[in-house]
Amino acid sequence: MNFVVDYKALVNKDIADILIITATDIETQMLHASLSPISDEGLLEIRHKDSVYYAGKLGEYNVVHCQCTNMGAQERGASLMTTTKAICAWPNIKAVVMVGIAFGMYENEGENPQHFSDVLIANTIFPYENQRLNPDGSIKYRGKEHSSESKFIDAFAVIAQNWDRKNTNGEVTRIDICSMLSGEKLVDNLEERNILKEAFSTCRGGEMEGIGVAAACEEHNKPWILLKAICDFADGNKKEEKEKKQRDAAEAAILACKNALATDNVSVLIGEKVNYFYRPERVDLSKVFFIHYEADCESYYLQRSVDEALAPFILRKSCWVYGKSGMGKSELLTRTLINNHLNFIYVDLSLCSRTEPIDSFKTIYEEICNRLSVEPKETSNFKSLIKLIADLLNEHMGNQTLYLLVDEIPFEHKSSVFNEFVENFCAMMTYCGKKLTNTSVLFMLSSIASPLELLSPDYLAKVSQHIKFVELKSWTIDECVALINLLGAHVHLEWKEINFEDFALAFECSPRLIKNALKDVCVLGCGTIDKTIINRIKLG
Question: Domains along the chain?
Answer without folding.
Answer: 13-270 (3.40.50.1580), 315-471 (3.40.50.300)
